[in-house]
Amino acid sequence: MGITKSEVFKKRQNHMATLAKAFDHPARVAILEYLLTNRTCITNDLVNQLPLSQSTISQHLKELKQIGIIKGEVEGPKLNYCIDEKVWEEARDVFINFFAKYVPKNCC
Amino acid sequence: MGITKSEVFKKRQNHMATLAKAFDHPARVAILEYLLTNRTCITNDLVNQLPLSQSTISQHLKELKQIGIIKGEVEGPKLNYCIDEKVWEEARDVFINFFAKYVPKNCC
DNA sequence: AACCATTATCGTAATATTGCGTTATAACGA
DNA sequence: TCGTTATAACGCAATATTACGATAATGGTT
């Protein structure tokens, strides 16, 4: 149905799924990469960098902000986006922890 | 449009987005967690564990298999799923690398 | 062969996502 | 005040995803 039955899953599982959404679209990966290398970004810079319209980019930024992994600050007529350190590290820990759970074994 | 313009993004970005899809739904996180602790699984076990129908679970398994992060082996009338070590480690590297790109700074 | 258990596939419905054009909105400078 | 610029918000269309019941398909068992 396109509707995720999140209520039947554990909080941790929903949380990871939410965080993963920050990386599950190439445009969002590109935006995050831009933020990582440029430390800060203004939407208009992204419009010049990415082959997407301004409104589409704004929407991706909104989603990233909802997830919490980025935050924006008004700077005159512009908006200064940057990575939210706390959430970033939280996401990093969640993923690294998850990946660490795997212990190779010749099972199949 | 619901259609992702993947052709305009870099391979790396699309690759990460694809891998992230393995984790962007709580049911898939739950399936992977089950595989992590049980090392192996038969679909029917999951049907008993998760509050989702058999067909829905089968679909999630199919997607995980398409991503490549799990693989399945026929075992009589059953199917034995397990984590694909190579892809798992590849995903781990991609994510860890990405997370490592962030250097905290008081920017905003 | 008939039957059972297990899993995949199909069809369908509901909802979500992606993308864009267009229209606000807000801040600055002339 | 009036443009100009930068962003957000709205609304639409197209496609994707999620979920399930029903139906196949597969392999083993009797």
UniProtKB/TrEMBL annotation, chains A, B:
One of its GO terms (molecular function) is DNA binding. Residues 8-102 form the HTH arsR-type domain. SMART domains: HTH_ARSR. Keywords: DNA-binding, Transcription, Transcription regulation. Pfam families: HTH_5 (PF01022). InterPro entries: ArsR-like_HTH (IPR011991), HTH_ArsR_DNA-bd_dom (IPR001845), HTH_MetalResp_TranReg (IPR051081), WH-like_DNA-bd_sf (IPR036388), WH_DNA-bd_sf (IPR036390). It comes from the Bacteria. PANTHER family: REGULATORY PROTEIN ARSR (PTHR33154:SF15), TRANSCRIPTIONAL REGULATOR, ARSR FAMILY (PTHR33154). This is Transcriptional regulator. The lineage of its organism: Bacteria, Pseudomonadati, Bacteroidota, Cytophagia, Cytophagales.
